[in-house]
Amino acid sequence: MQEIPVALQGYYFAITLALGAVVGVLFDFYRTCRYFRRPRRSWGFFFDLLFFLVVTLVVYTGLLLANWGEVRIYVFVGLTLGFLLYLLVFSRSFLRLFRFLLRCLFRVLEGVGRIVRSVAIFFAGRAMIPARPFLKLGRWAVRKLAKGRASLRQAGGKALKRAKKALNIFPGKKS
I need a labelling partner for 56 at 20 to 30 A (CA). Which of 19, 50, 102, 167 fits? Predict the structure, then answer.
């Protein structure tokens, strides 16, 4: 194992402090997202796992770029201290910022959804203009069939009663 100069170790330690703070920012963003969109328990596990995979990827990439992926004790100390310092100093501000940004995003998405819905209704109404005669014809046919079905039921019921009387199919029952 080769010796690393103290100044370089200090640089690596500062990088791990910054990575710990980045993990804190990601954690607060994740907390804010869960605050607005509360997932079911079954999905909660999946999102937690996804969060930890993202954090692992960020820390791994940061360490790989900073000190070629060498993991020493100061890496764990720096990550922990960076995360704790972030939580104590900056967490409230970032939570407010994330809540504000997500509220704005949801309002914008609601507005876009209303516009898209209005445009879709407009074009659907215009697309139905050529089909209106066929719709009227279909309604007329359904009404005629319903009337015909009712009269068929009546006629069929009368014919069945006459046949029962004539043939006396069910001798124990009165027709």
Answer: 102
